[in-house]
Design goal:
Length: 381
């Protein structure tokens, strides 16, 4: 007789709830598999089944313990339930092992005699979670002969939770993609050589990179009362808020979601330059907010500090050439660099000629404009 779960309605709800919890935290799939086997007995796994090479099926999650390592190391390529099944059969949503391979054939296999029988296992069921062109994802459950083959009621329980498992896997994959993109974006902002803020329609700051935080603390022209970015001069602040409103969509009826560049005068210093632009809808979704604007603040008085490794990678410069290029971008003369580096002026000129060739420039002014105009070459330090 098959093991009949008690309180089937409660069992279904508990398993469905556990499946969706896995979408947020993939580590909880192991916990979900434990709940499956508590209801149906045996051992469980979620595995990937390659279409072109079924012998290379691999568990993604399982509760097999040390016994599972034997499967990964060797017996995955001897599993008749995977290697000897045709495509139409594989595509079925729920398939008991008896429908995959006959019991007689299974019992004569190495897979059964050396891997299953020592663990007291005999009956299995496979549930299709995702059927892709190159591979599929499946839930597999194996249990001992004392529980018998999986009954119609048990397969019904699996059929009820299967759509939720599929959605949980899909949601988990989408969340992982968003998290990876979000982490990559924030890392890029952190290493950007200019101050960058992300603000909403009310100018509330959602993110500020290290340079932005430093500028906010030290620059009198900027302010952030209550965590909202603004400009100290009232007239300029009104224009700034209008630009953010347009960039976040509030002004779409008049002019669409547009960007704007503002110049913010400072006494005895060159003006700040503010570039306010809409953040792509796909990117702002990572932050769980409404529309956001990207505000980039450039300080013309801040000496350019270029990243040596970034220079070498971008233009195939040698370490020596990259150091000279960074020094020139920071305002040092060729003679001053030669003296500080302990090389002759003629040697410095030779290195500069190589830099011109590799960057496609022929004057120091053009070189400085090229290097300082690229924020990805600048270091936030």
């Amino acid at each position: 007789m098959g093991h009949r779960p008690k309180n089937e309605s409660g069992a279904r709800l508990a398993l469905i709830d556990a499946a969706y919890a896995c979408a947020v935290d993939p580590e909880r799939w192991a916990e979900f598999l434990d709940q499956i086997t508590q209801r149906l007995s045996g051992l469980s796994t979620i595995y990937r089944w390659p279409s072109r090479n079924p012998q290379d099926n691999r568990p993604l999650f399982d509760n097999f313990g040390e016994f599972g390592r034997l499967y990964e190391d060797y017996y995955h390529s001897r599993n008749l339930w995977v290697t000897d099944v045709d495509e139409p059969t594989r595509a079925r949503a729920i398939m008991p092992s008896e429908g995959l391979v006959s019991t007689d054939r299974l019992e004569r296999s190495e897979f059964y005699s050396d891997w299953m029988r020592p663990q007291g296992l005999k009956h299995g069921v496979s549930c299709l979670l995702h059927d892709g062109r190159d591979f599929s994802y499946n839930l597999g459950i194996i249990r001992g002969p004392e529980f018998g083959a999986f009954t119609g009621d048990e397969q019904g329980l699996l059929a009820d939770i299967l759509p939720h498992m599929r959605r949980a896997l899909e949601l988990g994959q989408r969340l992982e993609t968003l998290q990876q993109r979000s982490a990559g974006m924030l890392t890029a902002f952190d290493t950007l050589g200019v101050a960058a803020f992300l603000v909403d329609a009310d100018c509330r700051i959602y993110f500020a990179n290290p340079l932005a935080e430093h500028m906010l603390a030290a620059e009198a022209a900027l302010r952030a009362p209550g965590g909202r970015l603004g400009l100290t001069r009232a007239a300029l602040d009104t224009g700034f808020r209008a630009a953010v409103d347009a960039a976040t969509g509030g002004g779409r009826e008049a002019s669409g979601r547009t960007g704007k560049i503002m110049s913010v005068p400072r006494s005895s210093r060159s003006p700040l330059s503010l570039n306010i632009a809409p953040l792509d809808e796909r990117d702002r979704a990572m932050f769980g907010t409404g529309p956001l604007a990207l505000v980039v603040v450039s300080d013309g008085d801040r000496p350019a500090r270029l990243d040596i490794d970034a220079l070498r990678s971008a233009f195939d410069l040698t370490a020596t050439e990259a150091r000279l290029a960074a020094a020139i971008a920071a305002g040092m003369t060729l003679a001053g660099y030669a003296e500080s580096a302990g090389v002759s002026l003629s040697t410095a000129r030779t290195h500069l000629a190589a830099i011109f060739s590799k960057t496609g420039t022929n004057r120091q002014a053009d070189l400085v404009r090229l290097l300082t105009g690229n924020p990805w070459l600048q270091t936030p330090e």
